[in-house]
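FAQ: What does a multi-protein file look like?

Like this. Sequence, then tokens, then the next protein.
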Amino acid sequence: MPGPIVPWRDGWDEAGVRRAGMAWGLMEHGHGQSSRAGGAILAFTIIAGALIGNHFGQPSIGMLAGTGIGVATAVGLYLLDRRR
């Protein structure tokens, strides 16, 4: 559930950071549970696939296989995280 819209005036905020437009107050209104990150798993499986593929003389095929496995794992984690 997204937090409230927090309007900022164009210019500088109290911390001296340049702001423009609107910002979503998502960081302040979390639901208390951390979500799982699939990006690290995706990166690891791509690299692992390339290394394993290189061992067999086919790094491109290994990288594609690692990408497929990583995407499937990341989607699975996303679906599991949505149910929490």
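And here is the next protein:
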Amino acid sequence: MKVGKVRVGDKIEIDMGTRLGSNPYCNIYKGTYESEIDGTIHVAIKHISACKLRADKWQAKALANEIKHQRNLQPLRSPHIVKFYEHVTNANGDHYLVYEFCDNTDLANYTEMCEE
């Protein structure tokens, strides 16, 4: 795996050396996002490889559903919803989903903290 920073589009920079998590479907990295409202902020970036999507049609459908779901939630503001910023596809067909970065915790712990 290459280590360093990679730009995706005009607003996203991924720190390839800071992987936050992974599963067979994707890798999640820490990065920065240039938000028109919030300025440059730390984010979690879910990277889904085009190769994995071509190999598994179910994963491609799951990705399409996730993007649709996140876009529906995008206008909502709640401490119980991790903010979704953007979906970008590069020239290779790789997908990048940009989410609010939950510092020092994972999503499950973050949700529990908000409920207390």
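Q: Is there any per-entry metadata?
A: Some entries carry free-text notes. For the entry above: The longest strand covers residues 12-22.
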